[in-house]
Amino acid sequence: xxxxxxxxxxxxxxxxxxxxxxxxxxxxxxxxxxxxxxxxxxxxxxxxxxxxxxxxxxxxxxxxxxxxxxxxxxxxxxxxxxxxxxxxxxxxxxxxxxxxxxxxxxxxxxxxxxxxxxxxxxxxxxxxxxxxxxxxxxxxxxxxxxxxxxxxxxxxxxxx
Length: 160
Prior knowledge:
There is one protein chain. A hairpin with a 2-residue loop joins strand 6 and strand 7. The longest helix has 30 residues, at 11-40. The chain has 3 helices and 7 strands; from the N terminus they run E-H-H-E-E-E-E-H-E-E. It folds into 2 domains: 7-78, Helix Hairpins (Orthogonal Bundle); 92-159, Chitinase A, domain 3 (Roll). By secondary structure, the protein is of the alpha/beta class. Strands 5-4-3-7-6 form a 5-stranded mixed sheet. Strands 1-2 form a two-stranded parallel sheet.
């Protein structure tokens, strides 16, 4: 058994994950069962590629079902429709500049389930995420990385 921490997600992402879970546990399971039954009808299971492929797909689907169930059980739904983006918190995009580097990178602070095109995701529970929460534009924060302590400037904060 593994422990899953809280995951902060938007209402739209929560709804999408609930819909995905419903699809997998209804239609998905029926389709996989039908594929396994069809492959079984082909004969010898020891050398039946269709059967093994269907069983593999079933295993992957059930793993995703368990992942979604755990994620939704520990989800904290946040709404930032009426809130400002004056300090870093989950659900926002943060532009960062590392010390001694002129490049600015944008990062979404939240769950990988909410990834956005062109923006890397940083978990709020990661060392960088923990250091960023509560910071404001212009603040410098430090966090411990495998290569040592890194220092980043919060250049800007915006809604996703």
